[in-house]
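Posting this for the archive.
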Amino acid sequence: MTAEAQQCSAEADDGLAPEDLAWRARRSTLAPLAFGVIGLTASPLLLGLVFGPIGLRAGIDLWRSGIRRGSVVVGISASMLAVVCSVIAAVLWGSVLAGVLLTRDALRETERWVGMPVPAVEVAARGADGDRSRRIAAGEGRARLALVFITPEHEASDETLRILAELSPSFPSVGLLVVGTQSSVDATRRAVLHSGLDVEAIGGETALPAPIDAVAITPTIVVIDRDGRIESAASGGRPAAEIKRMLEGPAASMR
């Protein structure tokens, strides 16, 4: 504070009674605490970045002027904590927003796979009879093949497997192969059996051809037609009616 400002302040104080001066001092020391509390309360909305610095400035100014009240100390601490909490909230909100945007992009990318060819490959799949070679394409006497990408013990993946366990008996011409994108073949096979479905499974260590090697969301269902092209693809948890339409074929999905 400059000498001129101090003189003006002293002149303004000359007309006040001592009890009024004491009351004004008490009132001013509550300002940092008030801004700190408001900043903490509003930190989920990032407003602590507004009120926190104001409270810090007010508290530091009071401390430098020789006021050593407990409310000043608490106000400075609360204002600093409001700033920190708002920064943390900003990081969390940013990660949520990034996750939403990336998920939307992944969903759209999966839908763009429709019509793309899938090169035929041989993989080692584990079923009721142990490991055997399985062809990733429409084949082995079946008109179409549905690949189900899951994460074992993930609620949405488990629900998708339970829906398929109920629907698969009605679609004997559709082959099912479950892929654990980030799990071993043993864990994937256990998840398949736990859902009541008894089909072959492969683990995340299995190399798959493009574009199905780029599945980013589980569960994802990819149906390959008899010509080896992707007939339909959908990521995320889907209701039974939609999964049924995918198993029935493109004609059903257009109803």
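The first strand starts at residue 121 and ends at 127. The chain has eight helices and seven strands.
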